[in-house]
Task: inverse folding
């Protein structure tokens, strides 16, 4: 891996099984970050759980126990579990090992390219939020040269803080504060206050966009020196000032970041507006039927993947809230797929390219469609899909048949094993989401058994 001019990001180290593309604010910002890297000669590296585990094992074995504990699930004896703990810690390891710049998935680089490249020459730096008089060193954006001692000290401080605070009763109620003091900004501040380090390394280079779209910068400045933009920070700020703790606790406008991946223990109030209308279900089944018929007629091998495979294996049909069908082909068949554009047109549909994949849709309808992904030996070309790669072609071939309502659809050879790895607990848990509402909610089928039934077309 390149040790200089690399932007590192982390996704897929949690076992919630949610693909990056299903969290719009993350997906959109990561795409902007990748484009910025391509345009400006910067290497981009997205880290997943396998790679993070390998980094700990190979380079930081002394932290293996801590790494394991940071990922422990919530119990009465360990109420502090939150994936942010592990996500915080591993970014320090990455920067110490390789150097470069770390950027959270809801932030993207902007601004003067020359000034941005100068960040790679600094020994280390952090950023602070707007109007924060303490200038606390947040870790949403930070950079370092490889092997900088400060990040080794930060890793050691995480370890010492965790075992010092984990059993204190106060943090069983103040779980957010536990994160702040163990792996977050207060922990970094303690290290930065040591005489050998420079508190001026906390930079005012972050533009913050509120939920309402208002640009907020430190001290009311015009953000001319901003080199990053945060698209998800309104949980911390409102109207250009930091919200007090009472306001934050009472806020109903946005779920706090620290609870984004928390487990749901009570039956939630399901937003039924997310469920597809019968008309959209009918249309999507028709599009799917036409597509697989054309594939079969032209001997184009395909298989269901992602949410569509989940629906087939769990419900033998269409997930009631899913507004697209996900199919995959081998990349060697890309030209054969493109050659079918006239046949789709004859059926009143269009086959269009979208980046590294293709869509089948009905002109004039933006509610439902089919995504067709092109894989090479079971691997997605998109970096943000690397955590859902097939481990081998034996997981895919020979293809089998699955029931999709009244249709028979090709599925991978080892579908259950694949889903067990990619979407843990997929038989009991679901993430209710579609592209129209962009609202994700975790539900348990024991609470909503009716949602395990497939959505079927009417005649």
Result:
């Amino acid at each position: 891996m390149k040790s200089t001019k690399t932007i590192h990001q982390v996704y897929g180290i949690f076992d919630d099984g949610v693909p990056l593309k299903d969290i719009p604010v993350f997906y959109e910002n990561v795409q902007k970050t990748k484009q910025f890297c391509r345009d400006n000669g910067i290497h981009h590296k997205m880290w997943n759980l396998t790679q993070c585990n390998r980094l700990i094992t190979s380079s930081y074995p002394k932290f293996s126990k801590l790494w394991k504990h940071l990922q422990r699930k919530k119990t009465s004896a360990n109420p502090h579990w939150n994936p942010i703990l592990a996500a915080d810690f591993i970014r320090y390891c990455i920067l110490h090992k390789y150097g470069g710049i770390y950027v959270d998935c809801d932030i993207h680089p902007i601004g003067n390219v020359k000034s941005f490249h100068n960040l790679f020459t600094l020994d280390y730096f952090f950023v602070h939020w707007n109007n924060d008089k303490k200038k606390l060193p947040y870790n949403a954006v930070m950079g370092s040269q490889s092997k900088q001692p400060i990040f080794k000290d930060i890793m050691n401080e995480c370890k010492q803080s965790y075992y010092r605070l984990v059993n204190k009763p106060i943090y069983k109620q103040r779980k957010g504060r536990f994160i702040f003091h163990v792996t977050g900004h207060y922990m970094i501040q303690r290290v930065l206050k040591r005489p050998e380090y420079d508190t001026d390394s906390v930079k005012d280079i972050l533009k913050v966009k509120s939920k309402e779209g208002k640009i907020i910068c430190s001290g009311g400045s015009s953000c001319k020196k901003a080199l990053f933009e945060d698209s998800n920070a309104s949980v911390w700020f409102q109207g250009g000032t930091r919200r007090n703790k009472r306001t934050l606790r009472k806020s109903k406008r946005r779920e706090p970041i620290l609870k984004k991946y928390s487990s749901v223990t009570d039956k939630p109030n399901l937003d039924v507006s997310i469920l597809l209308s019968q008309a959209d279900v009918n249309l999507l089944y028709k599009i799917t039927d036409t597509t697989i018929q054309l594939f079969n007629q032209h001997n184009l091998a395909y298989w269901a993947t992602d949410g569509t495979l989940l629906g087939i294996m769990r419900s033998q049909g269409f997930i009631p809230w899913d507004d697209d069908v996900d199919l995959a082909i081998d990349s060697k068949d890309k030209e054969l797929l493109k050659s079918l554009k006239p046949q789709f047109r004859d059926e009143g549909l269009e086959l269009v390219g979208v980046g590294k994949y293709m869509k089948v849709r009905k002109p004039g309808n933006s509610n439902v469609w089919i995504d067709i992904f092109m894989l090479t030996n079971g691997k997605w070309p998109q970096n943000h899909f690397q955590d859902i790669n097939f481990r081998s072609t034996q997981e895919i071939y020979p293809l089998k048949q699955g029931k999709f309502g009244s249709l028979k659809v090709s599925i991978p050879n080892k579908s259950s094993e694949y889903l067990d790895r990619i979407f843990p607990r997929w038989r009991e848990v679901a993430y209710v989401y579609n592209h129209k509402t962009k609202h994700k909610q975790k539900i348990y089928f024991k609470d909503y058994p009716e949602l395990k039934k497939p959505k079927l077309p009417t005649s």
Q: What stands out?
A: The chain has 15 helices and 21 strands. The two ends are 55 Å apart (CA to CA).
